Protein 1
Amino acid sequence: MPHESAPPPHTLRSIRAAQAGVATNAVLALAKITAGILGTTYALIADGVESLADVASSLIVWGGVALGARPPDENHPYGHGRAEALAAAVVSVMMLGAAAFVATESIREIRTPHQFPARWTLIFLLGVVAVKAMMAHRVSAVSVESGSTAVAADASHHMSDAITSAAAFVGISAALLGRHFGGGPRWAAADDWAALASSVVIARNGITMALAALHDLMDRSPGEPVLAPLREAALGVPGVCAIEKLAARRVGTGFRVTVHVQASPELSLADAHSLGGRVKYAMRSAGLRIDSVLVHMEPYGGDGEMGG
């Protein structure tokens, strides 16, 4: 059997971030739902439900990152990197489902007369917002470092939870202020209106992450931020006359690159092969996470982008 090396450091950090998300969200979900029931605020219960979705999403991200880091095998010669994009797509769908649930239940609560929320829930929510904002920041940093679409989706879910909690804080504050100034029972539903507003934010984040995952699954070009340094690296190799074609696609946390290099038609097959190897090395050294480079050598005919 082939030896499987340990996952790279950025993958391990991604897995640890997902594991931390599972533990944190499980505790917060239970605390929010309990506080929402005791404090008679549906906004907090809805927030707890969203945290339950975060638990599931972090588990999916954990699995997607671990599977995506597996090396190529006989049945998957191009590796398992698509697992990350699939995990991100599933998480985005879960976010949309959570948004629909929160919106539906918020409308039901708005139409149902109920008690004013308890004041102590405001202090609880401030702590929740702080924890979730910190989690979103840390996981987002890991996603930038690793280039993982799945981890970025998880960070977005953490931020959605922080936004939901902040909206609940605003809604409960409005309800309590309304009661203090004699606004009447209708102000008791202010936190439910806040939950309804937060569902729109959650849905928006879900759509954004779904599009990002879809782009990866459909092999959308990463654009000039990735192609420009690769092109520059290839053109800087002595012997390269021009670049006819250059394409890249994201697979997991890295990129697979295909380049058509034009060189002197007088080169021998061995020399052309050697030049292709130098181009490959230069592209891998361009400062990007490149998983593979496929170099196609062609005789130079005066077309393409000129090298130095």
Protein 2
Amino acid sequence: MDLTANLESIRQRIRTACDRCDREPNSITLLAVTKTHSSETVKAATDLGLTLFGENKVQEAKAKIPNCPGKARWHFIGHLQSNKCRDAVELFETIQSVDSLALAQEINKRAAAAAKTMRVLLEVNVAGEASKFGYKPEQMLAELKELNALPRLEIHGFMEIPPFTPVPEKSRPHFQKLRELKTEAESVLGAPLSVLSMGMSDDFEVAIEEGSTMIRVGTALFGPRAIRSKTEP
């Protein structure tokens, strides 16, 4: 693995995508997905200037994060079970996968106990896949004000994982829909939401063209994992 070359390739892909849609490359945040990768790999990435990392599993993060450089910042991007909320609130600065009011309430409870305000993104299952977690769009909009009223949560935007496809262009309608949902949500709240976390190793250029502000990249940066599901970044 040539991490330096991989990172430069990703940055060039970001620049090219931004050129196509008249955006500034510095408007795109790169989140490095470190699932199954070691703390030594995280350190190598921080040595190259990366500071934002994502983990899918609380238990793996709990073992890994204490051994990583202190300047690393962490987002939780996997499905979160209620019984893991206390650890997630402690370990992460942002939870990207809030997919129900009940989960949000539990995070709020644990954040209050920790005297912490928790940044969150709402995960939306735009395509309505039965195999995926995430809010149904209409349910998210219906519960948005109640979610926003939770005193220890700050809603910063949305996240999605579109259906797996080897053709990145097929993800475009799903990215468009999440962008439109963000606009609807901003109208409901009367306030801007700054984050659209969408786009992974194979399709982030399309996501950038459709308004993504944060891409979640694992394989293109660190190389393939030993076992990789079709829904992982």
